[in-house]
Design goal:
Layout: H1 2-29, H2 35-42, H3 52-65, H4 69-84, H5 94-104, H6 108-125, H7 131-155, H8 182-221, H9 229-240, H10 243-268, H11 276-298, H12 308-314, H13 317-339, H14 348-385, H15 396-399
Helix pairs in contact: 2-4, 3-4, 4-5, 4-6, 5-6, 6-7, 6-8, 7-8, 7-9, 8-10, 9-10, 11-14, 12-14, 13-14
Length: 400
C-alpha cells in the first residue's frame, strides 16, 4: 500500500517537473531580441507614410525589455534603417541612432550599412548648400563613408575586383550507422572547409555592394567644387590606414574629376559648323515634308505640269537669289580655271576643290529647283481648285 502511494506521488511530480523545465527553457530563449521582433519594426517602413511614432514606441519597448549591448545595437540599427529609408522627415535622428548602434557593436555588414545611413543623412539634412558650407558638410559626410571602407578592408573585401563565389561539391558519402572510413572523414572535412569559404565569399559579395556605393559617393563629393582632394587624401590615410587602398581611392576620384572637367570644357566649346551639303539635304527634306502635308490636307494628286511663267511667278525671290549667286560663283570659278591655262596647268588639290565645289553648287541648285517646282505645283493646284482665286495653304509658307 505504501509502495502504491509512492508510485502515485512520483507520477504526480513528473508533469510539474516537466512544466518547470520547459518554462525555464522558454524564458531563457527570450533573453535576446528575436529577428521576428526586429522585422515587425522594419516592416513599418512605408516611405513618407511610415508611422514614425509607432516605430519609436516599439523600439523603446524592446530597449526596456532587452538590456544587453548586442540586443540594443540591433534595435538601434533597425530603427536607423527605418528612418533612413523613409524620406526626409526623420533624417536628423539617423546619425545619432547609427552612432549608438555602432558603439554597442554590429557585425561587419550591418556596420557598413549603418555608416552609409549616417553619411547619407548628413547630406540630406544639409541639402542645397554651396561653397564653403558644402565643403564643411562634405567633410562631415565623408568620415562615415571612409569608416565603412575601413570595415571592408579589415574584413578582407576586395575593392579593385569582383568577388568570386567558389563552387562547392557535395561529398558522395552513403549515410549509414557504422563508422566512416578515413577517406570519407577527409571528404567531409574538405566539404566543411569549402562551405566555410563559400559562406565567407557570399558575405564579401554583399559587403562589396556597400563598398562600391561608398567609393562612388566619395568620388562624387570630392569631384565637386570647391575642390579639396588633398583634404580627402589626408582623411583617407588617417582612417583607412592602408596606402594601397588610399592610392586606389584617389585614382578613382581623380579620374572622375578629369571626366567632369572634360565634359565642362566640351559644353563650353561652340558646336562645329554644319556641313553645307548636309544643310541642303535637311532643307530638301523639310520642303518635301511640307509638300506632303499640303497634299494630305488638299486630298488627291497634285499636277506638276506647269508653264515657265508660273514657275517664275511662284518661286520665292530668296531662292532665286541663292540660285543666281551660286551660278555666278560657279561661272567665276570656271573663268579662273580657263585663265590658269586649262586643266594641265592646275594642281591636283585645286582640281579636287573645284570638283567638290561644283558638286555642292549643283546639288544646291537641284534642291532649290525641285523645291520651287513642288511649291509652284501646289500653288497652281490650289488656284485651279479655288476657281482662279489665289489660295495659300494655311501655315505652308511658315514651313518653308
Amino acid at each position: 500500500m505504501t509502495v502504491l502511494r509512492r508510485d502515485r506521488a512520483f507520477f504526480a511530480v513528473i508533469p510539474a517537473a516537466l512544466g518547470l523545465l520547459f518554462g525555464a527553457l522558454h524564458v531563457s530563449g527570450q533573453d535576446h531580441v528575436t529577428l521576428r521582433q526586429l522585422n515587425e519594426i522594419d516592416n513599418l517602413r512605408a516611405g513618407v507614410k511610415t508611422p514614425f511614432a509607432e516605430a519609436k514606441k516599439r523600439t523603446d519597448s524592446l530597449l526596456r525589455r532587452y538590456p544587453s549591448s548586442k540586443d540594443q545595437a540591433l534595435i538601434y540599427y533597425t530603427l536607423a534603417g527605418v528612418y533612413a529609408q523613409s524620406g526626409f522627415a526623420m533624417q536628423k535622428d539617423v546619425a545619432g541612432l547609427a552612432e549608438k548602434a555602432l558603439a554597442l557593436g554590429l557585425d561587419p555588414q550591418q556596420a557598413m550599412a549603418a555608416y552609409q545611413h549616417w553619411g547619407n543623412s548628413i547630406q540630406m539634412v544639409n541639402g542645397g548648400v554651396r561653397g564653403t558650407a558644402f565643403a564643411e558638410v562634405r567633410r562631415q559626410a565623408v568620415v562615415p563613408y571612409l569608416s565603412a571602407v575601413r570595415v571592408a578592408l579589415v574584413e578582407g573585401v576586395p575593392y579593385d575586383r569582383k568577388v568570386v563565389i567558389p563552387r562547392v561539391v557535395r561529398p558522395q558519402i552513403v549515410h549509414r550507422l557504422g563508422q566512416r572510413t578515413p577517406a570519407e572523414k577527409a571528404e567531409v572535412a574538405r566539404y566543411v572547409r569549402d562551405m566555410a569559404q563559400h559562406d565567407r565569399a557570399r558575405l564579401h559579395q554583399r559587403m562589396s555592394l556597400y563598398l562600391e556605393a561608398q567609393i562612388a559617393g566619395i568620388s562624387y563629393l570630392y569631384s565637386s567644387f570647391p575642390l579639396a582632394t588633398s583634404e580627402l587624401e589626408s582623411l583617407a590615410k588617417e582612417i583607412l590606414k592602408d596606402d594601397v587602398a588610399v592610392n586606389y581611392l584617389m585614382d578613382v576620384v581623380n579620374e572622375r574629376l578629369r571626366k567632369r572637367i572634360a565634359d565642362m570644357a566640351g559644353d563650353a566649346r561652340p558646336p562645329p559648323p554644319k556641313d553645307p551639303v548636309q544643310a541642303v539635304e535637311d532643307l530638301l527634306h523639310a520642303v518635301r515634308k511640307g509638300i506632303q502635308e499640303c497634299i494630305a490636307e488638299m486630298g488627291g494628286d497634285m499636277p506638276l505640269t506647269l508653264s515657265q511663267e508660273l514657275i517664275e511667278e511662284s518661286v520665292p525671290a530668296p531662292v532665286q537669289e541663292v540660285v543666281a549667286e551660286e551660278l555666278g560663283q560657279k561661272q567665276e570659278a570656271d573663268g579662273d580655271a580657263e585663265e590658269g591655262g586649262g586643266e594641265e596647268g592646275q594642281s591636283p588639290a585645286r582640281k579636287g576643290a573645284q570638283v567638290e565645289r561644283g558638286n555642292s553648287v549643283l546639288f544646291i541648285v537641284l534642291a532649290a529647283v525641285l523645291a520651287s517646282v513642288l511649291l509652284a505645283g501646289a500653288i497652281a493646284w490650289r488656284r485651279r481648285r479655288g476657281g482662279g482665286r489665289e489660295v495659300v495653304g494655311e501655315g505652308f509658307g511658315d514651313r518653308l
